[in-house]
Amino acid sequence: MTSNSGSSPLPAPKPAIILVRPQLGENIGKAARAMLNFGLTEMRLVSPRDGWPNPNAGPAASGADQVLEQAKLFDSVAEATADCAHVFATTVRKRGVTKPVLTPDAAANAIRAEPGKSAILFGPERSGLETDDVALARSIITVPINPEFGSLNLAQAVILVAYEWSKAEGLASPPATDLDPPAPQSELEGMIGQLDTMLDAAGYFFPPDRTPATKRTLRTLLTKPGWTAQEVRTLRGVLSALAGKKPRN
Amino acid sequence: MTSNSGSSPLPAPKPAIILVRPQLGENIGKAARAMLNFGLTEMRLVSPRDGWPNPNAGPAASGADQVLEQAKLFDSVAEATADCAHVFATTVRKRGVTKPVLTPDAAANAIRAEPGKSAILFGPERSGLETDDVALARSIITVPINPEFGSLNLAQAVILVAYEWSKAEGLASPPATDLDPPAPQSELEGMIGQLDTMLDAAGYFFPPDRTPATKRTLRTLLTKPGWTAQEVRTLRGVLSALAGKKPRN
């Protein structure tokens, strides 16, 4: 982060919109249109079902071609969020995951209030995000909706989140904060990977059929703090020490 | 959510959504879906281009059939708004008409604050409301939008207005969260003590004169998450596994 010569701190960067395994090119185009209406331009695609580029996306974008042209393609949610300090998962269903649940406006405030890049995950049209996708996120965004008729499509979910985010554009500068941002997701993943390896060697994952759930539990609690890059480095030093490597001196 | 036992006045009735000369049945269906997602059920149609009912509306409504079935048909905006105390016209363009211009959230507040039925007018897909339609309204609703890319379609305009209106409804209250509270400090201390002992044995604390600062750093980052009692127990299991104790089974 570069220092700011004036009085107010730099605003948080615009969030990236990440479409996870989207099915229809048309919906990718509609999401791009929804984003650009409210000033969001950074789209990331994780394993779109029909590949990328998709000829059906452009016509549905109604002129938001720049968003599609700049869209980046990834193989996994972990890679798509590697540079992000805050990951939000949009979901309408209750999950077994215990994370804070935010409305779109609360999420927009959170994105602006804290330093570091944010990513917002949107799941496939039919099924929404998988539990493992949600496990990567620090918070959940849920649009409060008619309990008797909840039928938001992908582009509608995107537009509501983008709209809320856009509300504070051009308004007073965000509150000053000199907190360091959370470490990029890739650094957190590195630490989780190191711990997994150590625990595997220690016979911690038993019985085998419960291992995925156990790993999700660990991931959830390690994602919760929002540790800074320095804190993650410290913890990796702790793990290395516990693994019997020589302490630094 | 408990109901409010009496003291507050009756809420203003739900606003009617009036589609003025809509062109495509598909868009009427999408608007119905957008409305019902946020609890609005009263649609009025003024001179739809292709007549009414329209066989393309139902499939696009994705289950919001009740809105379409109850939709009322009118020949003019004046007739469609005859029973309404407040008429709002949605438009993105500057008009020669001097009326208050509200954002969707300000309009939602106005609809709730004043007694009497409100109507919200939405124009045809391609051209929007005519000057004569806007002239019937008391206020204008404009969605603040990217000045370099304003491309909201009819259903998107409807959903943003409906969403804002719904925020003060019961469904829009912040989602319930059943997050557990952080563990008592004593349990956290127990975990930190366990880790300290292990790190001491691993030779982590070196050089000795920096040990107090290192311990403070660790304490700070372990205090940051606000882990629950269950999470602290999980972490103590992790530590025990790393210390070579037998895994639980």
Automatic annotation (TrEMBL), chains A, B:
Gene3D superfamilies: 1.10.8.590, 3.40.1280.10
Family of this protein: Belongs to the class IV-like SAM-binding methyltransferase superfamily. RNA methyltransferase TrmH family.
Record's protein name: tRNA (cytidine/uridine-2'-O-)-methyltransferase TrmJ
Database matches in PANTHER family: TRNA/RRNA METHYLTRANSFERASE (PTHR42786), TRNA_RRNA METHYLTRANSFERASE SPOU TYPE DOMAIN-CONTAINING PROTEIN (PTHR42786:SF7)
Swiss-Prot/TrEMBL keywords: Cytoplasm, Methyltransferase, S-adenosyl-L-methionine, Transferase, tRNA processing
GO terms of biological process kind: tRNA nucleoside ribose methylation
GO CC terms in record: cytosol
Top EC category: transferase
Reaction(s) the record says it catalyses: cytidine(32) in tRNA + S-adenosyl-L-methionine = 2'-O-methylcytidine(32) in tRNA + S-adenosyl-L-homocysteine + H(+); uridine(32) in tRNA + S-adenosyl-L-methionine = 2'-O-methyluridine(32) in tRNA + S-adenosyl-L-homocysteine + H(+)
GO molecular function: RNA binding; tRNA (cytidine(32)-2'-O)-methyltransferase activity; tRNA (cytidine(32)/uridine(32)-2'-O)-methyltransferase activity
Localization, UniProt: Cytoplasm
Self-association state and partner proteins as the record states: Homodimer.
Function, as annotated: Catalyzes the formation of 2'O-methylated cytidine (Cm32) or 2'O-methylated uridine (Um32) at position 32 in tRNA.
Entry EC number(s): 2.1.1.200
Domain tRNA/rRNA methyltransferase SpoU type: residue ranges: 16-163
Any Pfam family: SpoU_methylase
Sections of the chain in a coiled coil: none
SUPFAM superfamilies: alpha/beta knot (SSF75217)
InterPro entries in the record: Alpha/beta_knot_MTases (IPR029028), RNA_MeTrfase_TrmJ/LasT (IPR004384), SpoU_MeTrfase (IPR001537), tRNA_m1G_MTases_N (IPR029026)
